[in-house]
Design goal:
There is one protein chain. It is built from twelve helices and eleven strands. By secondary structure, the protein is α/β, with parallel strands linked by helices. It folds into two domains: about 190 residues, inorganic pyrophosphatase (n-terminal core) (Alpha-Beta Complex), CATH 3.90.1640; about 100 residues, Diaminopimelate Epimerase, Chain A, domain 1. It starts with a strand and ends with a helix. The structure holds manganese (II) ion. Manganese (II) ion (MN) binds next to loops.
Amino acid sequence: MRLRVLHHGSCFDGASSAGIFARFFRECVARGPVDVAFTPMDHKEAGPAIPPESLDGDVNACVDFRYTSDARLHWWFDHHVSTFQSAADEAHFRADQNGQKFYDPSAKSCTRFLARTVAEKFGFDISSLQELLHWAEIIDGALFESAAQAVELHEPALRLMTWVEANRDRALSERFIADVISKPLEEVVASPYVAEPLVGLLERHHKNVEAIRRLARLEQGVVFTDLSLEPITSVNKFIVYYLYPEARYAVTVLSPGKRMKVSVGSNPWPPMPRTHDIAKLCERYGGGGHPAVGAISLPKGEVVRARQIAAELVAILRS
Ligand SMILES: [Mn+2]
């Protein structure tokens, strides 16, 4: 039987959730051999979050990603505040009776939420997954002990986070998913398919720190960084707070590959607590996220619009 697992792509929590779900399904649900196929999902600016044709397994699951009312979605676990694309989708989820769809917007990581839920409800043994659950919670919940820990990236889990956020190779993504649920993270980070590209990624990361040092501007507690003209496709979101510990919020314009992105974050180690709900702010512009961090996607080339949205957000966050 064929299991399709859709998961948040290029994301440590998404990959860990996918791996744990597949292992749970094999150990606690399936009655015979399972052929698992994974599909990384990306937040898009338009159209259905889950294209109907992606639900092509005998059993389909979606983890750490948006809900769909499509009847072919059999299992679902998420914690994103903006998970429902419409009120009808949310009503559909609330009315669900099959007991295989779970949502907790207060969960720090989908990984631990999923693992604990299936442990409690279906007897899945999570004793060998403690290191992974611990780090997924820190990474997805931004519970780093300091901006230095999140930017200097000494711990294996943080190096894996850096690798997975940059990786676009589907085969390697699947290998990573299999490895993180079965090996100590120190062993995964030492594997050549991770260790070799990581050298370049860390070098690029250090260049990003320098670019942000050069371009970021802090005013009234908000750091604005326009990286749209830089050859930067992804950036560690804690660099701004490492450089500007006194910042409360950060708004960044980025031009990653096929889209424009405005990302909005709040300092996890703030001088003054966060007072804005960033998911709600991003939703005004068609984006989404969590109360503490969110993003808006725009079609490629919409630099002017992206900068305008960023300027509006900066003004709101300064007040
Ligand atoms: Mn997540």
